[in-house]
Amino acid sequence: MVLCQTQFISFHEAIKLKEENEELASKREIILKRLRDCMPEEAKSFDVFTQGSYAMNTGIKPLDGDFDIDVGLWFDMSREDAGPVEAKEWVFKALEGHTKDVKMKTPCVTVTYAAGYHVDVTVYSATNENCKVYLAKGKTTSKREEKYWDESNPKDLIKEIRDHLTDKDDRRQFRRVVRYLKRWKDVNFKSATGKPSGIALTSCVYHWLDIQKDIDLFNGKVTYRDLDALISLIRSMISRFQTVYEVEGGELVSYPRINVELPVSPWPNLFELMTNKQMVTFKEKLECLLDALEEAKAKSDPTDACEILRKQFGDDFPVPPRPMTGKRSVAPAVLPSTESA
Amino acid sequence: MKELLFNLPDGRTLFIREPAIQKMLGYQQSNENDCEAGGILIGRILIENNHFIIDEVSEPYPTDTRKRHRFIRSQKGHQEYFNALWEEYEGRCFYLGEWHTHPEKVPLPSTVDRRGWRENLSLLYETDSLFFIIVGTEKIKVWYGKCGTGEIACMEGGWENERKTSKKTI
Fold first, then answer.
1. CA separation for the pair B19, A5 (Å, rounded)
2. Is A171 in the same domain as A303?
3. What is the pLDDT of residue A191?
4. Rounded distance between C-alpha atoms, residue A273 and residue A184, angstroms
5. 3-state secondary structure of A170
6. Distance of CA A111 to CAs A70, A123, A139, A243, B22, Å?
7. Which of A126, A157, A188 is the last residue of a domain?
8. Buried b (16+ CB within 10 A) or exposed e, B15-47
9. How far, in Å, CA of A27 to CA of A128, rounded?
10. Domain range holding A169?
């Protein structure tokens, strides 16, 4: 029975998007300058804030090197002051021509750089009579019902995730498990569609993680068990799938589905958009992950366990050469000669 | 896959990897005139939990005495073999005990064996435990010895029970 905690920690260090990532900060500055300089006159005043996993301390490095920078624009206006697409058009006008590839997408305006990263700019109506914050949804070409202000408060979400759990070391295990799961998703879901979103997985960990640690009664030393934390979390997730029935070609077909709520208002189900078939794949992959985690745990040699884990978490998961998992002796033993019969 | 796992009285485990087992099995005294063979056990004490893993065993050298019912292991050969591994692994390996074969189905240690193990346990090593393996013609048996106190206990398990033992750990 092994835990491979040392290897999990190295893996975490390898995939973690560090807060002091200068490269990303400078890229962010470039776009902010552009927004401030080129915002059309009719636009309301705005504040800027960093959002996304980076702000929640749960960011990981992308596998393909395509960094995603999230910028939120907090417009000082109510929903009545401007239409959602009207507000997004201000942003689009400010950014148009900045690179060859600027697109208005349903939830944001995306600027793609040839250097291999993109910036998603989201637009919020932040001053409303009900104190709620709304995200601008829709594109210029969208139908009327697809252009709307959608209740969503990223600042509340960031705070909720950042401050989750009071013990700072428990919180670290929470963030590590989020990152492990997000990297597992990137490694195991290759097609562009049908993968669970990062925030959906983050919310699963938020709601269902059972912190796993040992406390030494003699010296109070705390040892975290990330492998056990993952095993209990994935087991819990699998147990939450429920069967739904659909009529297909006159026959009743059953599908497994799981729901998870965003931890802040309006608590939407973050798995809502996954199709039934995608849900089947998602559940199968979770079961495969659980089998691997349990198989790894049952191993006696950490190297054998890490080889199993690497298949799930990808090449950033280290497989130590066997001797490296052993203690170092001070000097070679002096052997006796022996007699047996 | 042939791997062996034993539970120690103190909650730790001894795991013997397949390459080591295969080497020892190569010397089983299955035929009437096969002589005893033996060597030393080399392995790791894990950083993460102090459990033992036997990775390597030495094999008989010409300087050893091999008879039908006796095996005398000289220091020569085995010491050089151990030193070479110790260098290669930058000190990350320990001498963990002895193995030898017996021409009987289910092996039992002789008086000579027990005396030799006790003497060995009185010597000074960096490990707190040594293991003694006897390879019979149908069963491998492993004894656990505590350095210092010289206590010796037979461990449950063996390759016939491989499935049962490994299941316990899941």
1. 26
2. yes
3. 85
4. 20
5. helix
6. 11, 14, 15, 40, 61
7. A157
8. bbbeebbeebeebbbeeeeebbbbbbbbbbbbe
9. 31
10. 5-14+164-324
B126/A336 CB distance under 8 A: no
The number of C-alpha atoms within 13 Å of A192 and in the hemisphere containing its C-beta is: 0
Chain B residue whose CA is closest to A300: B15
Active-site residue B36, yes or no? yes
The answer on A316 and A172 residing in a single domain is yes
Q: Which residues of chain A have pLDDT under 70?
A: 19-20
- Residue B111 CA to residue A243 CA, distance in Å, equals 66
**Same domain, yes or no: A139 and A201:** no
Sign of the CA dihedral A274, A278, A279, A283? negative
* DSSP states of A265-278: TT--BTTTTS-HHH
Q: Which two tokens stand for residue B24?
A: 């020892």
pLDDT at residue B158, as a whole number: 55
User: From the CB of residue B5, how many other CB atoms can be counted at a distance below 10 Å?
Assistant: 20
Query: What stretches in chain B show pLDDT beneath 70?
Result: 1, 157-170
Dig out the tokens for A198 from the structure. Answer: 């990062």
Tokens of B117: 């193990």
Are residues A294 and B48, on separate chains, in Cβ contact within 8 Å? Answer: no
Tell me, what's the ipTM?
Answer: 0.89
Determine contact, residues B136/B142, Cβ cutoff 8 Å: no
What predicted TM-score, i.e. pTM, was given to this entire model? 0.92
Q: Between A and B, how many residue pairs show a Cβ–Cβ distance under 8 A?
A: 126
Length of chain B: 170
DSSP string, B54-108: EEEE----TTSEEETTEEEE-STTHHHHHHHHHHHTTT--EEEEEEEE-SSSS--
The pLDDT, as a whole number, for residue B159 is 55
Instruction: Give 3-state DSSP helix, strand, coil % of chain A, rounded to 5.
Output: 40, 20, 40
Give alpha helix (H) positions in chain A. 5-15, 22-38, 53-56, 84-95, 154-162, 168-188, 198-208, 226-239, 276-298, 302-313
Where do we find the tokens 């939990």? B49
Chain B residues with CB-CB distance to A328 below 8 A: 90-92
The reported pLDDT for the residue numbered A103 is 95
What is the DSSP code (8-state) at residue A45? Answer: P
Multiple choice CATH, B4-168, 3.40.50.720, 3.40.140.10, 3.90.660.10, 3.40.50.1110? 3.40.140.10
- Minimal Cα–Cα distance from A283 to chain B, Å? 23
Name the strand (E) or helix (H) holding B119.
Answer: helix B111-121
By the CB < 8 Å criterion, does A5 face chain B? yes
Burial class (CB in 10 A: 0-12, 13-18, 19+), A132: middle
**What are the φ/ψ torsions at residue A304 (nearest 5 degrees)?**
-60, -40
* Half-sphere CA count of B51, side-chain side, radius 13 A: 22
